Amino acid sequence: MTERQESGRPSFFLDLINRMSGDDVTGLAAQLAYFFLLSLFPLLLFLVSILPYLSLSPQDILNLVRSYAPQESMQVIERNLNQVMQGNGSVLSFGILATLWSGSNGINTMVRAFNRAYKVVENRHFLVARAMSMILTIAMIFVFVVALLLPVFGRQIGLFFTSNFGLSDEFLHIWNALRWVVSSLVLFFVLTMLYWIAPNKKINCLSVMPGALAATVGWCLVSLGFSFYVEKFGSYTSTYGSLGGIIVLMIWFYLSGFIIIIGGEINAIKSERKKPNC
Asked: What share of the chain is helix, strand, coil (3-state, %, to 5)?
C-alpha cells in the first residue's frame, strides 16, 4: 500500500467527485449561468456603444462570440444585438451599470464557490467584497475588449507582413491559428487572476495555475464539443420552440460555470494535499 492509501486519503479524482457533491458545485454553476445571462446583453449594449471609439463593427463582436458560443444561440444574440443597435447612445451608462451589477453578482458567486472549496469563511467587509467584485468585473470587461481587438488587429498585422515581406498565404493561416492560441492565453490569464484573488485566503499565484490550465482546456473542449452536439444532434428548437436558443445559451453558460468552479476545486485539493498529514 502506498503512503497515500495508508493515510486513508482518497485518490485525487475521487476527492474531486466527492467535493462536487459536498460543495454544491452544480447549484453554484446554475447561479453563475443565471448571472452570465444577465450580464451578456448589457455587455453587448456597452460594447456597441463604444464601437465608434475602437474602429470596430458589430460583426467583429459577433465573430468573437461565434468562436465559442453554440450556433443555435447565436440567432438569439444576433437578434438582440440588432435591437440594441437601433437604440441611441444614451444607453451607454445603463449598459455599464447593468454589466457591473450583474457581473459583480457573478463574481460573488465565484467567491462563495472558491471559499467553499478552500473551506474558509468570507469575513471581508461587505463593501470590500463588493468593491473587489466590481474591480474584477471591470478587469474582465477590459480583457474581453482586448480579446475583441486581438482578432481584428491580428488579422491586419498578418496581412501587413504578408503583403510587405512577400510571405506566402501559409504564413497567414499559421498566424490566424496563433490568434486562437492568444485567445486561450487571455482566458488562462483571467482564470488565474480569479483563482488567485477571489478566495478569502492568501494563495501563491503559481499554485493556482494547474486549476486555471485545467479550466482553460476544459472550457475550450466543452464549448467545442457542446457546439458540435447542438449542431449535429440537438433539437432544442423543435422541443422548446422559440426558446430553443435561450435554452442552448443557458446550458452553455451552465457548463462554463461548472468548469470554472471545478478549476477552483482542483486548486483547493492540491493546496490541501500539500499540508502534512496529522
From this structure: 85, 0, 15
